[in-house]
Amino acid sequence: MQRNFRRKFLLVISILFALYHLLLPLYAFLPNIQERAIHLALAFTIIFLGEKYGDSRVKRGFSILLWLLGVAICAYVVVNYSQIIEQYGTATGPLQVAMGIVLVSIVLEAARRMVRSALPLIALLALLYAFWGHLIPGYFGHPPYTLETISSMFILTTGGIWGLLVGVSANVIAIFVFLGAFVVHTGGGTGFMRLSVRLAGRYTGGPAKVSVISSALFGSVSGSASANVATTGAFTIPMMKRLGYNSALAAAVEAVASTGGQIMPPIMGAGAFIMAELIQTPYIKIAAGALLPALLYFFSAGAGIHFYCQGVGYRGLSPDEIPSWGHTLKASVFFLIPFSVLAYWLLRNFTPQYAAFWATLTTIPLALLDENLYIKIRSFVPKILGAIENGARQAALIASICAGAQVIISVIAFTGVGVKISSSIIAISGGQLLLTLVLIALTSIILGMEVPTTAAYIVAVVIGGPILIDLGIPPLAAHLFVFYFAILSAITPPVCGAVFIASGLAESDWVQSAKLALKLSFAAFLVPFLFVHDPALLLLGPHWRSLYGLFRAVLAITFVSASFMGFFRHPLGRIERVTLFVAGIFLFIPNFAINGLGLACGLAVFLRKRNHVSQR
After folding, report:
1. CA distance linking residue 263 with residue 486, whole number of Å
2. Is the dihedral of CA 134, 419, 172, 120 positive or negative?
3. Tens digit of pLDDT for each residue in 38-58?
4. Separation CA 357–CA 444 (nearest Å)
5. Nearest to 146 by CA among 103, 97, 106, 88
6. pLDDT of residue 380
7. CA 490 → CA 235, 367, 399, 405, distances in Å?
8. What percentage of residues in the chain have a pLDDT greater than 90?
9. By mean pLDDT, which of 70-79, 250-259, 359-368 is the weakest?
10. DSSP state of 375
11. CA-based, 20 to 30 A from 63: which of 201, 222, 288, 344?
12. Is residue 13 part of a domain?
């Protein structure tokens, strides 16, 4: 396939991809399986004919073969939907069995091309367990299943490839991905950066704090730590290095800040939409509940950066590098308008898809304007096409992750192994909440080290979620706990993807960057334990409890961050650092008396340092 023809063909498919998902909320007349099959067919086209097409004739030929087979099988499912429904998951002959095998193989290859080998390898292990798990003696064995039974389940039912995860990808995630792409490409990206520089640029550690704020804003629409690092890091890392920040710190700051973007509503790395389906809770409640933990994550990153830069003496930007409020507000229009429209329709209890459709529509006239709100017709078409192409690539990426994870989840549900693993975790922890939380946090981090965040969350929560709920934790808190730790894997050695990418941009030693990233973000690792023990931080309970929980969380993070950085208005001694750390931990515990003791310890150190500075 000639390069120019392929590029034009992909552009047409990307436009169709965008139109299909933008119009689906208005004309959602397709049955689930048909809707999901069309979604995967479009995603297969972007994956196999796009950037992963191949650099040799053999690889290109193989890509075209996979694309044709994938689209043909999806088309078969769409055309023969009525017949498939009447079969009740039983194949009518070897053709359907073969199509099931081929479809699963294509899904795994698509995932491998988009997100490396870990996800398809885990899916392959799950399939091996489904086929030969009956040979395992004892508790983890299961009844034998035939090839026909397993293949039929994957292609003919919504318990297989056409299951919940692919459904959420097709129904909700894709349109939000296109919304994010349209916001960034039509001027929102410039608005994010200007607002970040304006708010934080002039303070101590200004460029590093710009990274935190810009990553929170970009992450709210990108939902990918890697994309966030690449987007904001290209601006903030050179800025930090230019002002004398060492390369390892620049990379660590960007990695920590960008990782938090996946926690920030509205997209949350696609996790919010899957979470809403799994716990049958409206999306708006998921996003609202996740807001305070997300803000606490960025506050912990900012506190760590502040105390570190204060101790080292890193300054902020000069006044001539700070944009005026006028320029900042002009550029902010490009994201404030679509975000306001999104919030308006969500607060009126319309579906997230419907709200995202109207929010995306408002970005189109904004593409006619430049960053100073002057009409610039010449840039209109490139902006819109750029948004469509970028959105299609991101939607295809998430579709491949969801389809790959669906294979794993289908096997877990089909064989019942998830219940057995959950029972084993309960047996190991003895039903003790803290130990159970630690085990599930470690499981989420380990899975997230190699598997994309969304897939890691799904697999971990299928196993760990029911355990936490049985221990009395609200479903939203249980799911956010798992999701939060799956995200933190991006900055947790030895496989810390966000740190690797940021270190490449900063040309730093990734080991040093990883150590600094953990040091800067240590307090963030405590936040999930806080909202599990005090669900008011997820807006589950009286408002005064939420405000009090936020108050003590802010103080706890401040004290713990200062302790780790060894600076609190002045260098801290060993006893002062230990005192502050203990004060922070006391504030994390939901008990008024213990909180008061923690506050007293923290204030004692604060007053001691203030008096010390005054005497000097």
Report:
1. 10
2. negative
3. 999 999 999 999 876 767 788
4. 33
5. 97
6. 93
7. 20, 34, 20, 18
8. 37
9. 250-259
10. B
11. 222
12. yes
What spatial distance separates the first Cα and last Cα of the chain, rounded to whole Å?
74
pTM, entire model: 0.85
Q: CA 304, CA 311: separation in Å to the nearest integer?
A: 11
Sequence-separated (6 or more) residues with CB below 8 Å from residue 152: 89, 90, 91, 96, 97, 100
Q: Is residue 65 part of a domain?
A: yes
Given 143, 165, 187, which residue is the final one in a domain? 165
Last residue of a domain, one of 115, 137, 165: 165
CA of 253: how far to CAs of 116, 228, 298, in Å?
Answer: 25, 12, 11
d(CA 512, CA 501): 14
H or E segment to which residue 165 belongs:
helix 164-168
* Contact indicator for 407, 107 with CB cutoff of 8 Å: yes
- The DSSP code sequence of 541-587 is S-HHHHHHHHHHHHHHHHHHHHHHHTBSSSBPPHHHHHHHHHHHHHH
Q: Which two tokens stand for residue 500?
A: 């690797």
Query: DSSP code of 184?
Result: I
Q: Check the CA dihedral 34-35-38-39 and report its sign.
A: negative
Structure tokens of 144?
């034998």
Question: Domain residues for 615?
Answer: 547-616
Please give the mean pLDDT across all residues of the chain. Answer: 87
